[in-house]
Amino acid sequence: MTFQVAVIPGDGIGPELYEGSKRIIAKLIEKYNLDINLIKVEAGDTALNKYGEALPKQTLSVIEKADMILKGPVGESAMDVVVKLRQMYDMYANIRPAKSLPNVQSKYSNVDLLIVRENTEDLYKGFEFVLSSGVAIAIKVTTEFASKRIVNVALNYALMRRHKVTCVHKANVMRITDGLFASVCREVLKGKVNFDEMYVDAAAANLVRDPTRFDVIVTSNVYGDILSDEASQIAGSLGLAPSANIGDRKSMFEPVHGAAFDIAGKGIANPTAFLLSVSMMLSRMYDVSKENKYILASKSLEDAIIETYKSGNKLTEDVGGNAKLKDMVDEIYKYI
Amino acid sequence: MTFQVAVIPGDGIGPELYEGSKRIIAKLIEKYNLDINLIKVEAGDTALNKYGEALPKQTLSVIEKADMILKGPVGESAMDVVVKLRQMYDMYANIRPAKSLPNVQSKYSNVDLLIVRENTEDLYKGFEFVLSSGVAIAIKVTTEFASKRIVNVALNYALMRRHKVTCVHKANVMRITDGLFASVCREVLKGKVNFDEMYVDAAAANLVRDPTRFDVIVTSNVYGDILSDEASQIAGSLGLAPSANIGDRKSMFEPVHGAAFDIAGKGIANPTAFLLSVSMMLSRMYDVSKENKYILASKSLEDAIIETYKSGNKLTEDVGGNAKLKDMVDEIYKYI
Ligand SMILES: CC(C)[C@H](C(=O)O)[C@@H](O)C(=O)O
Ligand SMILES: CC(C)[C@H](C(=O)O)[C@@H](O)C(=O)O
């Protein structure tokens, strides 16, 4: 099979990240003989201005036929692109690694944890109403089905990692919704991995106190949104963090960082998060196809990024270097 | 007037914290001629076991007549004590300072921020339902009234501090509820202080990146719960953080930390958070009575705690010393 990949370059620094990274993707395709077809589509603020829709019909029709989506950062219309796509294609597992990189100045070292965030329900359902003037409500939805599904994803990751899962919730207050999530965690995880539970406020503090105590964290949508940004900053910088949105039929890969309009067009953006997202996509292609070449390509890209950080002389400004986006991409290219 | 204070020593290390701190409170009352009457009451896990209720009737009848509540940590029944009291007496403003202390090992220095957390609504309302087997919902409530009230509290603190307020929400996703909160922030704060807005995930990352960029953070109940634990850990330790729950008729003061059953009864608990909560109570008594002696007593206690950290030789184990609770209390006592 050939993987059809819809590429959304996005807004701000998004287009230069994709343009800059293309030769790396091309090298991987050639070297590993990958069956990947990239189709560029428009979505985000620029698309909204041009077509009146952040996710135009022509984009959706390409995505509909694609196996994967590779997405750059999107500006203010992010919700209408990313949350909509996650729900539309039931991409239920948001996978967010937080891992220290060599030579990145940080108060913490040896961070290596994975946040598995439920990606389809909770307050992200978008069920919100004005009951009467000045009184608004939103509905948080928690189902046993979605909880089981996400906890099983966490279990599988843990079994490939350090066999530890921390289930994060606030069941002392949200006894019914978070209580359901917590009881599913116990049911699925107990006896299978080293399992513990933590209230979300304590988890936010413990990430600061000692991030190395965590292996896999599984949690619901809102808590996962907050904790994953915190964790990636603890690992070094939000600007370096990749993510995957995994569904049974379609998956989407995107950097966690935003469109960074302030540095757009200057050629100084850091390609790490975007390229690590490409690596996560290749790894997912392996999971789907079971063809070794994809996991080899994924590993090769990740290693090339790590080598570039180790050598340390072609890093962009945000990580203390003075290289341009292009120089850093060239260096990573060399290591592949 | 004489302030009637209901004291809930609580569970775990709570009773020894209160017993240990009593002589300090007595010294302040004497030295500053304060009109305070302390009445000890039972609430929490121990009360639950004894009376079948975490908040027994006799406790509530004392609290009903009290002006203030001084509360130690409570175990698993915390929700039924603390959230219930907050709502019952409409103690709408949860005030959580995060401030570095001298000689406390921390990756961060000069942290001095204040989280103003809405304390009565959001998912804490407790409106939760099982819709059908395996499907649970909870209702997040946001009102203009409560939002205005809390944002005005934040404004008042900011005007006494560094004139900066960051309004934290997630209005890009929760457009109606968080959107209402955000619009109230703009309406109340713009032009009056240095005002900015931040999504809660970005705030969680920015606290890690540079906590000194914040002065006052105002936010809703759930985000405030999470961010305040994170911030107090960043300032040094969750174990040192005090808090106030302010209402128009009644207020409650409590350490942020839990009952720490593992070290209970050993006489090694750190009294800082409990005593800083007493200092916040004295400051509130000044706000209510406008009698200078209360703010002088509040300041004197806070300064004595800071002096004890500066001298550094009577600190408990959790902050790197080898003093007992009693030694540390004696040292603070000396400085008053
Ligand atoms: C842009 C926003 C809607 C999104 C989210 O909240 O999920 C982002 O913060 C993320 O975490 O991917
Ligand atoms: C004990 C718990 C219900 C409480 C809360 O969530 O408000 C606590 O975490 C706090 O922040 O005071």
UniProtKB/TrEMBL annotation, chains A, B:
> Which PROSITE patterns does this UniProt record tie to the protein?
IDH_IMDH
Enzyme class name: oxidoreductase
Identify the SMART domains for this entry: Iso_dh
Q: What are the required cofactors?
A: Mg(2+)
Domain of life, per UniProt, equals: Archaea
* GO BP term, example: isocitrate metabolic process
Q: Which E.C. number(s) belong to this protein?
A: 1.1.1.85, 1.1.1.87
Determine if Magnesium is one of this entry's keywords.
yes
Give the protein name, as stated in the record.
3-isopropylmalate dehydrogenase
Matching entries from InterPro entries are given as: IsoCit/isopropylmalate_DH_CS, IsoPropMal-DH-like_dom, LEU3_arc
Q: Which UniProt keywords apply?
A: Magnesium, Metal-binding, NAD, Oxidoreductase
| A Gene Ontology molecular function term of the record | isocitrate dehydrogenase (NAD+) activity
Family of the protein in this entry:
Belongs to the isocitrate and isopropylmalate dehydrogenases family.
| Coiled-coil regions, chain positions | none
* Species of the source: Saccharolobus shibatae
Residues of the Isopropylmalate dehydrogenase-like domain: 4-332
